[in-house]
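Quick question about two entries, pasted in order.
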Amino acid sequence: MKEAYCEHIYSSIVFGFNGYKYCNSVWDGPDFIPFEEDDAWNKNEKRRLDLINNLKKGVVPTNCMGCPDLHYTEKQYEDNDLKRNIINKITIFNHNHCNCKCFYCSVNSVYSGDEVRKSLFYDVLPLLRHLEVDNRITNNTFIAFNGGEPTMLEEFNDIANIALKHHCKTEILSNGIVYNEMISKLLIDRDDSILYISLDCGTNDTFKKMKIVDKFNDVVLNIKRYIEDLKNAGKEPFQIRIKYIIFPNVNDNKKEIDAFFKVCQECGVRTVARAVNHNDRKINSSNKNMYLEASVVKSYNYFKEQAENYCMNLILELWAEAIIENKFYTCRKISPITRLKSEFHFRFGKKY
């Protein structure tokens, strides 16, 4: 009998909005225990062990069916005290606190900005301490900050110190409105740690239209500060990635893209990231093909040309790249909720 094996269930954890679970996959993953429950942490630990024991018997959770990260093998995995398995990836996604209100943000809600109700969220730091005491956080652990703006978390500096203590790889998604010295320390500590800043435009007027706050100059200044921090540490700032999400009739024009690259050049940016708003994808109901508007595709390609002209590294968005370069792909049937979670939830079939 073949065993089922999932690295995510064995060695990862997501601290989500409503609770935590052992799954960092692009799939829905196994059910989680809500954080409000009594003894939720230990219940989730037991839940993980039960999941692993079932996987060893070839029994797969319903929400995991079809996941590309699920593998079957003849190899017999040893228990090796599973309670103390090293956690290879930690995703901090327990909040949507933010200091701007981007019109496109998928985690934006009435609990954002000035209307934050902290009582609806929970603290991650005590749970990380559990993992640390059990020696489950090492320099092989990857910590990703998702959800809202990480610099608004009261725990951010303490979590960053844990990452620094164990030399963890980190990835931070930020709007760049607030500068935090700990971010620079994380980038300097490891060459493979990454900071994404969503600038998304090249002018103040467009920034205000997209972010609903007047902070363009603050973000530009902070980009310069982070880059200067790395240079002072003797490092080229390739780890700092400035993002540009393309929206029809907003920033999908040469003038805005040109202004963006001019700002990036003045800041000393070496890496840019190009993306497409998920809500702008179109699906033909008759054949379930996905495509993007002509203006978006044109801007997407122009952005690539400008990245080459300015000699900047370009981070690609896989699903958009597949659609644009290969025209039409069939979209594998996945639940709408899952599709909203990540660009990597898109699975492409045969080309038409």
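Here is the second entry:
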Amino acid sequence: MSFEISHSLLKQVARLYNIDSRGLKFEGGFDHLFYGYSIKGKEFLIRIKTDMNLDKKSFIQIKAEVDWINYLAQNDIPVSKPQLSCNNKYVEEIRIDNKSYIVISFSKALGNYINFRDPDEWNDTLWEKMGEILGKMHSLSADFVPHMNYKRIEFEEDIFLKYDIILDHEKDKDIIELYSSLINWISTLSKPKNAYGIVHGDLNWGNYYIYNKTRFTLFDFDSCCYNWFIYDMVILIWSLIWEKPVKSAIKVLQEFIPSFYRGYSKYFTLDDKWIILMPDFLYFHDFFLYTAISETINAGNTTEDYPSMLEIIRKRCLSGESKAYFTHEEWIKLFTTS
């Protein structure tokens, strides 16, 4: 269940940023709650995370997240930048009644979510620009040196890979068997510097805003981790097509990928041996999300239509739809025609 924020906690949070708690406006959230505020006409968000099991490792992981975001900002990636508190800290911890709350403030992204029905926004210029941003991010990742005292987790440490704990062994028996084989497969992959590094980890189309039809701002980096660059790309592509019939999805991919990869390859390129794994990673992502959404439902989040989404993804898992779009050779051709 999402947690409650007491008035006394909000007052402490407000003091950290020298604002009046009455100026904090609830913006939503679940495992994180977000409150908006403004200073001299500029908009900001405060992210508050709590968990009875928060420990030193949790605090270190969030400091590592902020370290990565600041590195991107310093290298001209358009991100929502962390803001220092009155204590000159990016990450603050508040303890009340034996509960720990981790607090961060970010600049608020300008604009709104992409309007897919507006051809002035949703077009090959935008696709190429998004490719440029992700390509530059992966290029920076290849050279990124984490802080000596904190580093983000490796992908295999993610809780959602612990499907045997989260999923129902009776209802999800077939899912578990297939997912187990995919995890065995992914564990055999190499992790070269030109294909593996710290990534956003959840760069779907809901985690950035566009302003004035041209200006991007990326946010929601709390899933950042060490992962394959191709998988970071997969998440973006998957979020475009997961609800579409196969023929419609193929059409979208044929339009999107050449422009996207044209932008991406201005800063970074992936060897063909990773591109041919695109359908395998797409298929893997079906199972990863099935487990993630199952865990969210188990925790009591009913704010979105997760049961319906879960059923769609379940069908994708059992049908192998992600492997039906193109052959390995067709995937390579799609990227090389950019």
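Reply: The mean pLDDT is 92. The CA atoms of residues 200 and 221 lie 6 Å apart. Hope that helps.
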